[in-house]
C-alpha cells in the first residue's frame, strides 16, 4: 500500500545505524527554514534526578523553546528546570499524565510552534535522536513521528519481560485495528506537526496514561495524517520513572477500550466526539 492509498501508512523507519542529519531542516520545503519553530515539551512529575541529564542531550541548536509543565512534583523538579532556563508552567493541582500533556500542547501552540516534540524528562529516551525524529515532519513526509524502542532490542536495554510481552500484545492489536505496521505505540518520545495538533481534539482525551493511545486513535480516525517511527535505545534504571504492574493492567484495559471505541466509530455503530476531527483556525 502506498502513502497515497492511505494517509496514515507509516513512513519508512530509520534503521538504528542510520547516520543522524546534522541539520534536519530541509531547503526544499514550502515553509522557509528560518520560520520553523521547534518546541520541546516535557510533562514532568518528580523528575529532579534525571532532568539535567535529559536536558544535556537535547540538540539546542535545532530547538527554539523548551517548555516543562510540572504536575505538582514533590521534589525539586521546578527548581532544577528554572536553573536550566526552561520555560516552566506549574499546575496548582495534580492533573495526571494526560492532563499534563494537554497543558504542554496548549502552551506549545500558543508559542507559535510548527513542530512539537514530547520528551519525557526521566532520561529513558535518548534526546540526541530528536533531529532524526523531526526531520520527516520538517520535510513534509510525516505528521506524527514515534521513537520506537522495538526497532532495537528493548530487553537488552533493561525492559522487564512482562512489559515487553504486554507492549507487543497491545501493539499487535492496535496495528490490526488501525491498519498500520508500527513497531511500538507506547513510547514517551514523539513529535507532532502543528496542523495535526490543531486538528485532533486532544483536550477531550483522558487525563491518565491512556491519553497517548487516544491521541493515536484520533490521528488515524482523521484519515489525513502520516505516521512514522525511528529507532531509539531502551533505558531502564533506578532513577527513571516506571509504571507498576497494577497501573499497567489498568492502562492495558484502557487501551483495549480505545481500540473498541475506534472500531465502533469506524463502523458507524457508535460515533465518538473524541474521534471527530476539528478544523484548524486559519
Protein traits:
about 280 residues, alpha/beta, Spore Coat Polysaccharide Biosynthesis Protein SpsA, Chain A, seven-stranded mixed sheet, 8 helices, 7 strands, about 35% helix, globular, disordered N terminus
Please sum up the structure shown:
By secondary structure, this protein is of the alpha/beta class. It has a seven-stranded mixed β-sheet with strand order 3-2-1-4-6-5-7, sandwiched between helices.
Describe it for me?
By secondary structure, the protein is α/β, with parallel strands linked by helices. It has a single domain (33-272), classed as Alpha-Beta Complex (Spore Coat Polysaccharide Biosynthesis Protein SpsA, Chain A), CATH 3.90.550.10. The chain is built from 8 helices and 7 strands; from the N terminus they run βαβαβαβαβαβααβα. The protein has a 7-stranded mixed sheet with strand order 3-2-1-4-6-5-7, with helices on both faces. Helix 2 (77-83) links the parallel strand 2 (65-70) and strand 3 (87-90). Helix 5 runs parallel beside helix 8 and helix 7 packs parallel to helix 8 (245-266).
Amino acid at each position: 500500500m502506498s502513502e497515497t492509498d492511505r494517509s496514515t501508512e507509516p513512513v519508512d523507519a530509520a534503521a538504528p545505524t542510520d547516520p543522524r542529519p546534522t541539520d534536519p531542516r530541509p531547503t526544499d520545503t514550502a515553509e522557509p527554514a528560518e520560520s520553523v519553530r521547534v518546541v520541546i515539551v516535557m510533562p514532568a512529575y518528580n523528575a529532579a534526578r534525571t532532568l539535567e541529564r535529559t536536558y544535556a542531550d537535547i540538540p539546542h541548536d535545532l530547538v527554539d523553546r523548551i517548555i516543562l509543565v510540572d504536575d505538582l512534583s514533590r521534589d525539586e523538579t521546578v527548581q532544577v528546570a528554572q536553573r536550566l532556563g526552561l520555560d516552566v508552567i506549574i499546575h496548582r493541582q495534580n492533573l495526571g499524565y494526560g492532563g499534563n500533556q494537554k497543558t504542554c500542547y496548549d502552551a506549545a501552540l500558543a508559542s507559535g510552534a510548527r513542530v512539537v516534540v514530547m520528551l519525557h524528562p526521566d532520561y529513558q529516551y535518548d534526546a540526541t535522536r530528536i533531529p532524526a525524529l523531526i526531520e520527516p515532519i520538517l520535510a513534509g513526509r510525516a505528521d506524527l513521528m514515534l521513537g520506537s524502542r522495538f526497532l532495537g532490542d528493548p530487553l537488552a536495554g533493561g525492559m522487564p519481560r512482562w512489559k515487553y510481552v504486554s507492549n507487543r500484545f497491545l501493539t499487535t492489536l492496535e496495528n490490526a485495528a488501525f491498519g498500520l505496521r508500527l513497531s511500538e505505540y507506547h513510547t514517551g518520545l514523539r513529535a507532532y506537526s502543528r496542523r495535526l495538533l490543531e486538528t485532533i481534539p486532544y483536550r477531550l482525551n483522558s487525563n491518565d496514561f491512556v491519553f497517548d493511545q487516544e491521541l493515536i486513535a484520533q490521528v488515524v480516525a482523521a484519515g489525513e495524517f502520516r505516521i512514522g517511527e525511528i529507532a531509539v535505545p531502551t533505558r531502564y534504571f533506578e532513577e527513571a520513572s516506571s509504571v507498576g504492574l497494577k497501573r499497567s493492567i489498568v492502562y492495558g484495559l484502557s487501551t483495549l477500550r480505545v481500540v473498541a471505541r475506534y472500531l465502533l466509530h469506524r463502523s458507524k455503530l457508535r460515533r465518538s466526539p473524541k474521534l471527530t476531527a476539528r478544523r484548524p483556525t486559519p
